[in-house]
Write a structure and sequence with these properties.
The protein has 116 residues and is mainly α. It contains 4 helices and no strands. It has a domain of 71 residues. The longest helix is centred in the C-terminal third of the chain and has 22 residues.
Length: 116
């Protein structure tokens, strides 16, 4: 008995094959430590929380200006290699942003850090 390939089966197979090819070509970054990995997640979560908080600002021009400022600060600190310096920059940025949001009458979610 001949087995006919349905269009759906062909589509699923082609997606799977292309996914495998993409994963093979993806470079793995072996030099990242566990602390770097955790800090990267904390930075990303903080950035998202800040952007969500900025959406609460009623004035569109002020919101855009603060969004650009937050984005530029995160981009400027992106190439810092020292984990301890990055952590201190993140904590300092959170403090500054909290003081800014308090002066605007907004609230920012609490961020917990695991300290060693």
């Amino acid at each position: 008995m001949l087995r006919r390939t349905t269009p759906l089966r062909y589509f699923a197979t082609s997606i799977t094959n292309s996914s495998v090819k993409r994963l093979r070509h993806r470079k793995l970054n072996d030099d990242i430590s566990f602390e770097d990995f955790i800090l990267k997640g904390q930075v990303l979560q903080t950035y998202r929380d800040m952007l969500r908080t900025l959406q609460k600002i009623p004035d569109a021009s002020a919101r855009t200006e603060l969004h650009d400022f937050v984005k530029s600060e995160f981009k400027a600190a992106q190439n810092t290699k020292d984990v301890h310096l990055r952590r201190s920059q993140l904590i300092g940025g959170i403090r500054e942003f909290k003081s800014l949001t308090n002066s605007l009458g907004l609230s920012m979610p609490e961020i917990d850090f695991v300290r060693k």
